[in-house]
Amino acid sequence: MAYWLLKSEPESYGWDDLVGDGATEWDGVRNAVAAKYLRAMAPGDSAIIYHSGKDKAAVGLATITRAARPDGEDGRWVSVQVSPDRPLLRPVSLAAMKAEGQLADMAMLRQSRLSVSPVTDAEWAVLMAMAGL
């Protein structure tokens, strides 16, 4: 199983929307590196849902329920299906992530513009502890 971080602006589609829908197609990603990460996802992988924009915090956990499939007509882009698992007991802010030395090499912090990024096993453990899980 792999771990991922999925960014979304809550004003467009946030954690509450995902919970209300029960599942969603994580589509519309138009960055080659982020698309590469979507292609690497497998059913059963776990993801942290991160609210970008004004919130700037990890807020929930989700599961990848379907591997990548084409998104759009040109074949360059893909989407995956995501289902919500549970909210984090304590949202983990961007400031808290940056302050935690064990997360210094986290892909999301090094490449902040990516909407999809991998999370290592060690980083996941730190984030879950910070979130109270």
Structural class designation: alpha+beta
The percent range for strand residues is: 35-45%
Largest sheet: 6 strands, mixed
Q: Give helix and strand order, one letter per element, not per position.
A: EHHEHEEEHHEH
Fraction of residues in helix: 25-40%
How large, in whole angstroms, is the Cα Rg?
14 Å
Instruction: Write down the overall geometry.
Output: globular
CA-CA gap between termini: 18 Å
SS elements, strand count: 6
- What's the average pLDDT? 96
Instruction: Give start-end ranges of low-pLDDT stretches.
Output: none
Strand order of the largest sheet: 2-5-4-3-1-6
Number of helices: 6
Task: Tell me about this structure.
- With 133 residues, the chain is of the alpha+beta class.
- The protein has helices spanning 10-13, 15-21, 32-40, 94-99, 107-110, 121-130, and strands at residues 3-8, 24-26, 46-51, 57-70, 78-93, 116-119.
- Strands 2-5-4-3-1-6 form a 6-stranded mixed sheet.
- The longest helix has 10 residues, at 121-130.
